[in-house]
User: Which sequence fits this backbone?
């Protein structure tokens, strides 16, 4: 019997615990259900018990069976590969994860050696990484924590078991004090160090990227065509959606997360307030506006879309999107970068395909989408919860300098854009006068926009509670001169209308602000309340650029995330109310640590003073009487040892007394009563023992 | 002496390093934030697993005490005291050698070393390694731990015939001494003041002069052993072992032995009384001109035994006598 780590039951238990935690994570993310749970919670532990019990018996037959079943499983998986591949990358990932989990059970049946167990530990890491790739929520955290604890414990136990075959040092008669607290110090210290270091590394680690080699995810749980092909459908607003027709059994009322902006017209006077419902998650390496659609026609109260003709765009994976007619990107030489955004829908929503500005490629579960002249994309099927699609946008890395340098000349704007977006709007004279007065000093369109934004921020305030718009009143006039409060629709509309009154092309866009970034998943969690309306302004030579006085979305050129852990504290604060309890707790911790430090220093100083004091001085006197004075630089044990060589009959008491004195001075604790009594007795024995002449 | 610690990457460390690299690639290509978290945890564990054993090696303190005497080739128990908290250490004495032992500091206990050569053991070299807590990297360092008092390692006895005493050939070795003994040595003329009971009447009758008995006392045999370790080092060690076997046997037989050797600070000639003293003197002996072999001092009537490479018996390894 080798007596190696494979014999260690705690090590095996830790490995199985790590595998079970990783397996549960995979089952959770792949929705493997009860069969998966049975495999993880039943088959894995049972296989581990079996292989441990039979580890010293010949397993030739078992190996043959395991190999056969393993090969059969792989063959079965390969047979279904084509079907899974057709369903998308996600389906292949899931089936691969399940196959790998099943192979782990088989592997667990035959792992009598340390190498096999370490391989299982490594496999648990692979499973956890698979689950991490598939996971889009914070709910993975407990399983990840359990796996980390189990895997760390397994590593420590493997290391200890690997050393267990070595003979331990034979204990001396007086072992140094090492109480349970001191023994716990090292593992607790190591765990605390790992956690702290991991947190620090997370704060500086590079943000996860999205540059896939193969293909981006695109899935649809259920394929249900929209009522009007190429038209707009938004089940979340029920009867409020002009294009929506109630289905049997379906709700016709607006859902609490439904936003009226994702319809064919936007009434700025009647906006329901969407709640905190999580509507979708977005995986992207940088924040941006998730644009939905634009409105161009304003009648003083409502926004509508002038031209809703949608043309089909077909393709494979990806669907290469043509440049929209009204994009105005011809001849523009602004540097660009690709922003990959994967949208994971959590609630049924409009059939609008969201995405950052200027989408170029679309990975979509359908081979056809519809595009409007302004670039709005519409799906031919309802986008229910569970739908996933990926948009690759060619973001123009615009900076304030570029926008300032753009020519402030309406003649430089393409004719179609100028006709549609820069025509004089429906506006009251005092609003037009206000726009002219506020922007009097601006020499370029960017400063003009900023001046209007500043004026809006200075003279109005954001509020979700506004009085009803009186019949016949202009919504912008009411907002700017009467109510002086409003929400994004009023603010965005005012900006667009005033810009248009100055001859600057502008339009209203609805969509979502980036949402809160979950630093753990790296996903932006977009909630219903993140539905938003903002202005887009056309700059000759640059293109359309979003502006919003109410949301803090940086320009694309300034929006790169620096670290994966960016926003970690804010995220935790929002959930744990750090701001409330962190100061007293951290303050208490600091005070406690400071007090411990002061006590430790004081104790060391006291002991240092006592080093030649009451404890060791009597012993030194007794030894000096019988032997010689202690030499400079000679340690007390060495002194006692030299004494013992001359007085072999007193070597025992001298060694004991020296060890106790040493421990009293340098050990972590003071001597106990028994030890003090033993010390006194040893010194007395040295004093009264038979006199022996020294050399 | 390699006092600085040297790292050696172990299999779990390699696997963890590879896993961190994989996590980086996966996170860069999938955008999965959780993979960044896992990578950070792995990296933190790896850094801790690399730094912690190095830190332990830097901060543990080792002390060794041993008995005053030892014997070459025989186990020698020494008390090792390790202070400072650390993950389990593997301590392997390399000079003198011994098998590895597991040490969980702070602790104290006995390690058994086997000195292979005679001499004064001033320090012990320990190979201390630590790879805890995770076993990612093994740091090892050689530590020379000085002993508070040197251990005199006596040579391993190599039984052989005693060299022929010079005194026997020159007639300077006496087993008796004139004086008040029981043995009659001879007769001589009476001197004034001698007791009458010493008168040897038959001789007086024969010679016509008053004759007295002359007596003698039997004394212990006296020998001077000279150990000369000059020459081939291996043969010199064989000479020391030879002396270590012969001299205690002579002492046990009641012979008084005066041992002449060369020590680090010069020739040394002093009586030895028992095996331990013989061992200590031989342990301290170094190659060089030993104490003079000519009779001197109180043992001027001693025979001289010369333990040299030249006189080393054939079966003890002397090639020159074959």
Assistant:
């Amino acid at each position: 019997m080798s007596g190696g780590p494979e014999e260690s039951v705690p090590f095996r238990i830790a490995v199985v615990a790590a595998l079970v935690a990783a397996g549960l994570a995979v089952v959770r993310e792949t929705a493997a259900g009860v069969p998966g749970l049975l495999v993880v919670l039943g088959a894995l532990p049972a296989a581990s018990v079996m292989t441990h019990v039979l580890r010293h018996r010949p397993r030739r037959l078992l190996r043959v069976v395991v190999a056969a079943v393993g090969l059969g499983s792989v063959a079965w998986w390969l047979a279904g590969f084509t079907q899974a591949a057709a369903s998308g990358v996600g389906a292949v990932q899931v089936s691969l994860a399940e196959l790998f989990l099943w192979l782990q059970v088989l592997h667990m049946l035959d792992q009598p050696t340390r190498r096999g167990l370490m391989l299982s530990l490594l496999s648990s890491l692979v499973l956890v990484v698979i689950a991490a790739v598939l996971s889009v929520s914070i709910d993975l955290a407990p399983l990840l924590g359990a796996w980390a604890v189990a895997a760390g414990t397994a590593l420590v136990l493997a290391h200890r078991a690997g050393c267990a075959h070595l003979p331990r040092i034979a204990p001396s008669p007086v072992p140094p004090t090492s109480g349970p607290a001191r023994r716990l110090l090292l593992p607790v210290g190591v765990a605390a160090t790992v956690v702290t270091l991991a947190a620090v590394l997370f704060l500086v680690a590079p943000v996860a990227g999205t540059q896939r080699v193969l293909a981006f995810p695109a899935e649809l749980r259920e394929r249900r065509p929209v009522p009007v092909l190429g038209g707009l459908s938004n089940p979340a607003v029920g009867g409020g959606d002009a294009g929506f027709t109630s289905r049997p059994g379906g709700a016709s009322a607006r859902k609490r997360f439904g936003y009226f902006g994702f319809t064919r017209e936007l009434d700025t006077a009647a906006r329901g307030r969407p709640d905190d419902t999580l509507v979708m998650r977005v995986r992207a390496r940088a924040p941006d506006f998730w644009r939905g659609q634009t409105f161009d026609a304003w009648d003083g109260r409502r926004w509508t879309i002038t031209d809703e003709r949608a043309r089909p765009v077909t393709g494979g994976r990806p669907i290469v999107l043509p440049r929209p007619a009204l994009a105005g990107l011809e001849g523009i030489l602004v540097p660009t970068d690709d922003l990959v955004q994967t949208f994971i829908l959590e609630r049924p929503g409009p059939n609008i395909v969201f995405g950052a500005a200027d989408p170029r490629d679309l990975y979509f579960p359908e081979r056809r989408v519809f595009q409007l002249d302004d670039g709005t994309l519409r799906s031919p099927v309802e986008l229910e919860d569970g739908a996933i699609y990926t948009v690759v946008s060619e973001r123009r890395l615009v900076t304030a300098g570029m926008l300032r340098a753009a020519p402030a000349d309406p003649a430089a704007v393409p004719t179609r854009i100028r006709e549609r977006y820069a025509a004089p709007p429906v506006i009251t004279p005092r609003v037009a006068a206000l726009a002219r007065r506020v922007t009097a000093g601006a020499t370029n369109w960017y400063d003009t926009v900023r001046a209007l934004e500043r004026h809006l921020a200075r003279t109005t305030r954001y509020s979700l509670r506004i009085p009803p718009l009186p019949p016949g009143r202009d919504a912008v006039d009411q907002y700017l001169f009467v109510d002086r409060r409003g929400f994004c629709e009023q603010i965005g509309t005012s900006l667009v209308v005033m810009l248009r009154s100055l001859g600057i092309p502008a339009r209203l866009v609805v969509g979502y602000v980036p949402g809160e970034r979950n630093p753990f998943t790296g996903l932006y969690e977009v909630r219903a309340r993140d539905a938003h309306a903002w202005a887009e302004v056309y700059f000759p030579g640059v293109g359309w650029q979003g502006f919003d006085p109410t949301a803090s979305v940086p320009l694309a050129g300034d929006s790169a995330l620096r670290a994966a852990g960016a926003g970690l504290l804010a995220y935790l604060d929002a959930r744990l109310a750090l701001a409330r309890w962190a100061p007293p707790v951290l303050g208490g911790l600091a005070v406690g640590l400071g007090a411990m430090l002061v006590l430790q220093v004081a104790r060391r100083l006291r002991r240092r003073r006592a080093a030649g004091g009451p404890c060791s001085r009597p012993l030194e006197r007794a030894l000096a009487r019988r032997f010689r004075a202690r030499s400079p630089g000679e340690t007390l044990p060495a002194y006692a040892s030299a004494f013992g060589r001359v007085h072999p009959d007193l070597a025992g008491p001298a060694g004991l007394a020296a060890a106790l004195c040493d421990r009293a001075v340098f050990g972590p604790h003071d001597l106990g009563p028994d030890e003090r009594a033993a010390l006194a007795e040893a010194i007395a024995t040295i004093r009264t023992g038979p006199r022996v002449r020294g050399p | 002496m390699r006092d600085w610690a040297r790292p050696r990457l172990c299999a779990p460390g390699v696997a963890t390093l590879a896993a961190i690299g994989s996590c980086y690639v996966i996170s860069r290509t999938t955008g999965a934030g959780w993979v960044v978290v896992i990578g950070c945890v792995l990296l933190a564990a790896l850094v801790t697993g690399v730094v912690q054993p190095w830190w332990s090696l830097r901060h543990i303190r080792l002390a060794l005490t041993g008995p005053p005497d030892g014997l070459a080739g025989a186990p020698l128990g020494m008390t090792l005291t390790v202070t400072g908290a650390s993950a389990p250490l593997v301590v392997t004495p390399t000079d003198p050698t011994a098998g590895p032992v597991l040490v969980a500091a702070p602790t104290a206990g006995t390690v058994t070393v086997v000195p292979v050569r005679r001499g004064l053991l001033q320090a012990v070299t320990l190979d201390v390694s630590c790879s805890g807590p995770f076993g990612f990297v093994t740091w090892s360092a050689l530590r020379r731990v000085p002993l508070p008092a040197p251990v005199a390692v006596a040579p391993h006895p190599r039984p052989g015939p005693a060299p022929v005493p010079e005194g026997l050939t020159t007639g300077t070795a006496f087993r008796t001494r004139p004086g008040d003994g029981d043995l009659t040595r001879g007769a001589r003329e009476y001197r004034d003041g001698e007791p009458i009971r010493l008168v040897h009447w038959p001789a007086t009758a024969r010679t016509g002069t008053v004759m007295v008995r002359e007596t003698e006392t039997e004394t212990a045999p006296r020998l001077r052993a000279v150990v000369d370790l000059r020459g081939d080092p291996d043969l010199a060690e064989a000479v020391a072992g030879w002396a270590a076997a012969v001299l205690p046997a002579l002492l046990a037989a009641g012979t008084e032995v005066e041992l002449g050797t060369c020590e680090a600070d010069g020739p040394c000639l002093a009586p030895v009384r028992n095996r331990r003293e013989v061992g200590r003197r031989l342990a301290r002996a170094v190659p060089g001109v030993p104490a003079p072999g000519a009779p001197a001092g109180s043992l001027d009537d001693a025979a001289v035994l010369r333990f040299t490479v030249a006189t080393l018996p054939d079966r003890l390894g002397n090639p020159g006598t074959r």
About this structure: The first strand of chain A starts at residue 170 and ends at 171.
